[in-house]
Amino acid sequence: LPGPARPDAEPVVRELPPDADLTMGMPPESELEILTYSDFGVGIRWLAQQVVDDDWIPDAILGVVRGGLFVAAGLAYALDIKDVRHVNVEFYTDAGETLPEPILIGDQPHLADLVGMRVLVADDVADTGATLHFVRNLLPPDADVRVAVLYEKPHTTYAPEIAWRSTDRWIRFPWIQVPPVRVSEAGRSSV
User: Fold this and answer.
1) Confidence band (pLDDT; 50, 70, 90) for 168?
2) Per-residue DSSP letter, 175
3) What is the pTM of this model?
4) Which terminus, N or C, of the chain has the lesser number of Cβ atoms within 10 Å?
5) CA dihedral for 138, 66, 144, 163, sign (positive or negative)
6) Per-residue confidence (pLDDT) for residue 177, from 0 to 100
């Protein structure tokens, strides 16, 4: 049970320091595709409707960490799917910078039980296509796999079955509005 309300409690507004760099190495705002949380909700609903209209309800949803977790969770709620999994793949190291190829972070997820099942891979963007090819190769070959993304880039090498929008711009998602808070103490770092 929550504790009693404090009668003197007032909302606290906290702001970033005035000299905080919020660009994160991104292009100027005029050159960005900007997705708001409201747009995100519309996009998720549209993706879910396409899945239903295709009469292809997945047995499981596999979210690609990190941006794909938001998409996977939204689709799981919209489609009422309980089997939601994730795979942690790193490819982009910064805005416009990639590793030579995608790598798995942490343990390989257990996906062998998805043999013959319908799996919806969810990600925020199909950019180069490298991450989606990598993830597809982690799944059993006979799994019935479809990919749903909020955005696809015209140059992607992995065309998703369902994409809400297409753009050639760098995308600023609502969950990356400001740069990450960095931890650096006693030999420990968040980066």
Assistant:
1) very high
2) G
3) 0.81
4) N
5) negative
6) 60
